[in-house]
Amino acid sequence: MEYRLIGDNDYNFDPLATILKNRGIEDPKLFVNVDQSSVIHYSKLNNIDKAADCLIKHLNNKNKLFVQVDSDVDGYTSSSIIINYIKKICPKANIHYRIQDGKEHGVFIDTIPDDVDLVIIPDAGSSQFEEHEALNKRGTEIIVIDHHECERVSEHAIVVNNQLSPNYSNKTLTGAGMAYKFCQAVDEKLNKNEAEQFLDLVSIGNIADSADSRNLETRYFMNEGLKKIKHPLLKKLFKKQEFSTKGDKNIQNTQFFINPLINAAIRVGSSEEKDQMMRAFLLSKEKVPYKKRGQSETELVPIHDDTVRILGNLKAKQKRIADAAGVEIKNRIKEKSLTANKILIVYIEGILDKSLTGLVANQLAEEYKKPVLLARNDPEKGKEILSGSIRGYDKGFIKDFKKELIDTGLFEFVEGHPNAAGFAIKRQNLILVNKVLNEKFKDINIEEDIQNVDFEIPAKRLRKEFILQLDGYKNYWGYKVEEPLIAITDLEIEVEQIEHLGKKNKTTVKFKHGDIEYIRFKSDENYFNQLTASNGTLVINVIGKAKANEYKGKKTPQIEIYELEVVRTKQKELVF
Predict the structure, then answer these.
(1) Does 36-228 carry CATH code 3.90.1640.30?
(2) CATH 2.40.50.460 residue spans of the chain
(3) Within a 10 A sphere around the Cβ of 545, how many other Cβ atoms?
(4) CA distance 422 to 387
(5) Are 9 and 22 in contact (CB under 8 A)?
(6) DSSP labels, 175-233
(7) Long-range Cβ contacts of 147-154 (<8 Å, 24+ apart)
(8) Is 552 left (phi over 0), alpha (psi -120 to 50) or beta?
């Protein structure tokens, strides 16, 4: 177990300021008290007035509109914001939408009816230059509302993209935030104030797409949206997950317990299930048929209730599929000694469904502590072209995996975010990529597993008040503002005081030191037996997170163990 202390280790005077400065936040006070003054006016986005005028023109002309829903949570929320908004300002609008079959992104010309006058592409489409031109030639206008990096502005579409807007300083805002800005622009032209009611969807989309929560405007939208959960589907999702979230609607709980349910439906749901979820997002008030297990008759239930049930089932289904594929992929990694490479490149044809590639790549990156590239035969171009997903390991040496791959010059494309993107490459070039990156990083320990800790505290000096204080900061944590890790040293515990708990299977190790409980999950019998094999007193070091276990109104300070090492064993001293 290795760790690195970052910052000045101030756990007495102002631990929150210490944590925030360690995350690169220069003004902790401003961060903690973020308010509307951090919001940037939508007018600083290039082309946004033009886009708003275009939409208003088509609505006034009662033209046919088509929205392409992108295949992730940010895409669904972005499209929902725009469609719900249009229905609000123009209830009779002739608006249609399409859901992707799998994890595709952007528009496909042959799926757009010939009589469509305006195509709106939220959360995608900036670089679809050929599609823009083709639609333009047939007399269809295009509005792109996006946040992804793009090399240039399309000549045949109205593109509103913060990455392509030099005067808009917030590059972290995702598709849902951009959709909200677009609606604000239309609001002002029509002298309305309808966009504000969709802030809950703005928050969900930004959190799901891992927007940098250090950015003040982005954080403001995240916080405001979570304070104002009005959408019936979101309200019911938070209610379903109340045990896990303990009733706290914050960024971290949303990322861990809400967004994965929506994401599972997008990845493994049937067309019917995805369509029902989208209808729920679009505020449908319909009732849908549902037959309880063991009953012969079908009853009608509100769509939002049934959708929440379906999402829970799909999350469990996704886990089963991903776990099974993960075992097969790990076997392939072991058989071919792929961990010897600086980048974990795995050919997964026939092992894993395309819709789960990114999810499993992310899990592998966390487990193997290095960037991961999962490749399969391209479904359209055949065996000579491979495509798939990449996921970086941002705790490691490589901070921008996408850039490293692009810099090789061997890919057909790598598009997406710095550490989460899709790619295409000629089969023979993938072998060259492996050689190039192995050579480039030959002297670097890519998977160096050294944990950054915010505090290093001897066990004898660790106070329960400090643990409860840190737990009280939980609403601040999010992407790039990670929950702090604490290194606790020289903790002495009698072996017989270590418990192994669980209802069906014992998987939790627990012990108490002073007023503080220590708990480690995912600890099987083998782990417990190794930990307690010695007699006497264990002297251990622990890396963990500060928690508070609340029961019947009483809070017990707890350290959730991330890593544990036994430094030495002391024999029991004679007491006589």
Answers:
(1) yes
(2) 2-30+454-570
(3) 19
(4) 7
(5) no
(6) HHHHHHHHHHHHHHHHT---GGGGHHHHHHHHHHTT--TTSHHHHHHHHHHHHT---HH
(7) 147/123, 147/171, 147/173, 147/174, 147/175, 147/177, 147/178, 148/123, 148/124, 148/415, 148/416, 148/417, 150/126, 151/127, 153/46, 153/47, 154/126, 154/127, 154/128, 154/129
(8) left
Q: Give residue 574's pLDDT.
A: 63
In the chain, which residues fall in CATH 3.90.1640.30?
A: 36-228
Q: From CA 42, how far away is CA 46, in angstroms rounded?
A: 9
Position 445 scores a pLDDT of 81
Look at residues 395, 349, 350 and name the one whose alpha carbon lies nearest to residue 368.
395
Evaluate whether the domain defined by 336-440 bears CATH number 3.90.1150.10: no
CATH 3.30.300.180 fits 2-30+454-570, yes or no: no
| Residue 57 Cα distances to 54, 255, 539, angstroms | 5, 38, 73
Distance from C-alpha of 12 to C-alpha of 144, rounded to nearest angstrom: 50
Consecutive sets of 10 residues in the chain, 576 residues long: mean pLDDT of each? Answer: 92 96 96 98 98 98 98 97 99 97 88 97 96 96 96 96 98 98 99 98 98 98 97 98 95 97 96 98 96 85 97 97 96 96 96 93 94 92 90 88 96 91 95 96 82 96 97 97 97 95 91 96 94 92 95 91 94 68
Q: Where in the chain is the domain with CATH 3.10.310.30?
A: 336-440
Phi–psi pair at 402, nearest 5 degrees: -60, -45
Q: Quick check: 66 and 97 in contact, CB under 8 A?
A: yes
User: What is the distance between the alpha carbons of residues 384 and 405, in angstroms, rounded to a whole number?
Assistant: 19
Q: Cα separation of 34 and 164, whole Å?
A: 26
In one-letter notation, the amino acid at residue 228 is K
